Amino acid sequence: MKTLNDWYEQGLKSSEYIQGMSVNKEKMLSIYNRSILKEEQKEYLHSIQEQGLRALILTADWCGDAMVNIPLFMRIANEALIDIRYFIRDENLELMDQYLTNGKSRSIPIIVIIDKNGSEVARWGPRAPEGQELADELFGSLPAKGTPEFDEAFKKAIPEFQRKLTEDKQLWEAITDHIISTLKSNVPV
Prior knowledge:
- This protein is α+β, with helices and mostly antiparallel strands.
- The mean pLDDT is 96.
- The longest helix has 20 residues, at 148-167.
- The protein has a four-stranded mixed β-sheet, with helices on both faces.
- The protein has helices at residues 4-10, 14-20, 25-34, 39-47, 64-80, 93-96, 129-139, 148-167, 169-186, and strands spanning 54-59, 83-88, 110-114, 120-124.
- Strand 1 (54-59), helix 5 and strand 2 (83-88) form a beta-alpha-beta unit.
């Protein structure tokens, strides 16, 4: 069985992941370019720079959650000097299946933080509570999955979901706070 260090060595670098995107690239980059961190967040992130943390991210460019969460994490990682490697979910099921949501769903993105020895120190994803609330609000009243009515209603709900993900800076702030809170709980200064 591969170790997290083994996986990390095989992942895509940020530039490779972004250049390979065919869906949501512009939206993701726009979120990255418009997102900011608070000074106290930067102070904490700067304080963990020397720890040599790295991140493995399970993702896919078609995923709306990844479209918003990945650029926010990239901003965090830049401040903390966390080197990131990306893994396309459907091409890395052996890794993905180690990080199932609720023990059964291949939900993404999943961010796994490892230390310089390759030990997992933190895990985040696929959504912050505020992102889940938004999804529940927009998708919670849809007809049963697998029915023709579901497909039509889902297609109508997606644009509103993506609009909120790409424009709601309060949501971005909540996601950023949640990721940093997860880091603080697992990566002491």
